[in-house]
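Tutorial handout. Part one gives the primary structure; part two gives the three-dimensional structure as tokens.
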Amino acid sequence: MNDDGEPSSTAGKPIYGQIVSNDLTDILIVVIRYYGGVNLGTGGLIVAYRTAAADALSHCVIEEKYIKEKITFTFPYVMMNGVMKVVKTMEPQIISQEFDNTCTITLSIRRSKAEELKNKLNSLSFE
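Part two.
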């Protein structure tokens, strides 16, 4: 956050506060002030910047993107049903798969669910 010449903490902090209150990351908000300064005072500047940021956020489309992790799992063919049950339950994206006596499947899943997927796959036994 940056006040860029405005009185300390009158621009960057109010804008950043709107980003935090909307639980956003990887975002840039730029507010250009054409009027105010001495007439608004520091309290007025804070309100103006906060309101401008809130208005911008209320009129934009927020796109959610998640960090994903690739997991490659190798298993004997007899474990296919168990592996596919886990895949169906956790719904990772299947990147690639090879089925033979020894099978390999590469999956992509949100990083926050990656450890759970690994644990479920590693806990499978021959069925």
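Part three, for discussion. The mean pLDDT is 92. The chain is about 45% helix and 20% strand.
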